[in-house]
Each structure stands twice: as C-alpha cells, then as structure tokens.
Amino acid sequence: MRGGPLTEGGRPVTRWLFGSACAAHSAVDLPDPPLRTIIGPGARHMVAMALDQRHLDYSRDLEFQWPA
Fold this sequence. Notes:
Elements: E1 7-8, E2 11-12, H1 14-28, H2 43-60
Antiparallel strand pairs: 1-2
C-alpha cells in the first residue's frame, strides 16, 4: 500500500474497517434497511457536533422559524 498502512492514532485501522464493512452489510440485509447508518469510531460524536452547529446556525438566523 502506498504510504504504508492506514492508521488512526498510530494504530492500524484494519479491525474497525472490517467491522464497519460488516455493519454496512448487515444493514443492507435488513428487510427494511435504514436510509442512513452511522458507522465507525467517533461517527456518532461527529454527527452530533454537526447537528449542534446546524441548530446554532438556525438560531442565529432572524428570518428562520421552527415549524409549529
């Protein structure tokens, strides 16, 4: 592999890549799969941060009103 193995924090990521692939595969095999699936270390935290930022952006927009 060019540039060496993938690492996160100095550790190889092979295990969580395989785990992520298995999680994605199992979601696809569901009879009614979700439209989106959050997979990977730290993914839930990153999504929560993005949603918090979006909420903050909307709260600063004086013309935006949350639906009743």
